[in-house]
Amino acid sequence: MTDGTSRPLALEALATWEPVLRLLRDGSSSARRSGHVARHSWSLGLRRPPLPRPGRAARSERIRAEAEAVEPVRGALAEAGVDGVSFVADLAENGSAVLHLLWPGPGVEYGTTGAYPGAVVLVEGALPEPWRRLPDPVPGAVAAPSASPVALERMLRERLPGVGAGTTESEVAAAGARLGRPLPAELAVLYRVIGADARDGDTARRVAERAAPVLGCSLLPLDAVYVADAAAREVGWEWGATAAVVTGPGARVQGLAGSPGWIVFGEADGDRLAVDLTPGPRGHLGQIVRLDHEQVIGAELVAGSLTDLVAGRRGEETGARPGERSPVMARVNAKGLPHVEAAADPALEVLTIGVRDGAPMSLAALVGLPRLRTLTAYPGTLADPLEVGQLTGLEFLRLGVEEWRALLDAGAVPPTLAAAAVETHGAPDPLAVAALTDALLTLRGRPPVRRTVIEG
């Protein structure tokens, strides 16, 4: 990686990494260390002391030492316009070091575990199945009996006396045109009454502060109202592929990643509030739902209508949360299902095989399941990794290093995969994981992980 003049960037200079390498040696005669440094975070794989007892600050001193060591690297990342870089450092007893820098490239998502890469995207632009799922139609869905634009306007004016003019009819219409559908009647009333002009920042802020206790959220400016479709809830393959859309017959909210009928108008504690125009089988048009910022899928019912929200009448979801008590998702491990046969169900979409007692298991019971699309298995849990090749509908697969090697050597990597990942339970060699990542990318003609080796 150079700056166009054949001069190595600071990011690839040994001097930039020397403070990190000295810290990584940590008194050891020789060692292999690995980690990741990003512009706003780092993971050096060092064992930090426990929280200090009163009067001791060993932990805070170690964190401060790490921050000082990575600062030259973080500065070089900013200079190079790079978000982050993984590294593997081989430190010899004589003081020399070999540093491997790993640049994932466009086919690899950002990893969350030290030097290990994230999911390998084998099909450019591919999205997990839940992010391709559209809402199911609900014939006959109607607004809640409580929904009343007239009553809503009256309550707002009573509880917010003296609020100046809100948005105009033309501004509300323009917002609808931008969103591709007219604003729901109650939402239009809300903005006509208290939607202060976003161009007047002070006025908008004062109105929002007054309205927050009444609405239970901070009202977004009208020009910031948006549709929370699946694209607005961005997620990586490792999370998205292990999620599932589950909407039971008694659910009031569809368990979607996103919907063209979720119109977001408010924010509360990092979550988003939306008017729901694609309710579940027992829901109502225009009900209010909360999109939890800590969840990758689904929404929670808050109120049956905006009128109910302002009146303080909260709704309650009666169906199961997405994936809960459902054959669509299954876990086989020491605390979950005892074996694969117990998970086999025609509805099964996502199967996770984790740590358990007993011998490795066969996947024979899964063959022919029509909806199985995701399989993740810890190292050593499969009796015969080549049985994976009999699962003809997989779009995401996460296996250990040895299992992937078996599939690659046999030419048995499922051709249906859109993405894959290497299971790092047990802390395998990061360079071995990078080599497997390269092999998977090369198999599909995608750019490999790029490496830079620095010696000194």
Summarize the entry for a quick read.
The protein has 456 residues and is of the alpha+beta class. It has eleven helices and 17 strands.
Provide structural commentary.
This protein has 456 residues and is of the alpha+beta class. It has eleven helices and 17 strands. The strands form three sheets. Strands 5-16-15-14-13-12 form a six-stranded mixed beta sheet. Helix 10 packs parallel to helix 11. The radius of gyration is 27 Å and the shape is globular. The protein starts with 13 loop residues before the first helix and ends with a strand. The N terminus is likely disordered.
Key terms:
456 residues, 6-stranded antiparallel beta sheet, 11 helices, globular, 6-stranded mixed beta sheet, single chain, disordered N terminus, 17 strands, alpha+beta
Task: Write the topology of this structure.
Layout: H1 14-25, E1 31-38, E2 42-43, H2 58-80, E3 84-91, E4 97-103, E5 120-121, H3 149-159, H4 169-179, H5 185-194, H6 201-215, E6 218-219, E7 226-227, H7 237-240, E8 262-268, E9 271-276, E10 287-291, E11 300-303, H8 306-311, E12 329-332, H9 340-343, E13 350-353, E14 374-377, E15 396-399, H10 401-409, E16 419-422, H11 430-443, E17 450-455
Parallel strand pairs: 12-13, 13-14, 14-15, 15-16
Antiparallel strand pairs: 1-2, 1-3, 3-4, 4-17, 5-16, 6-8, 7-8, 8-9, 9-10, 10-11
Helix pairs in contact: 1-2, 3-5, 10-11
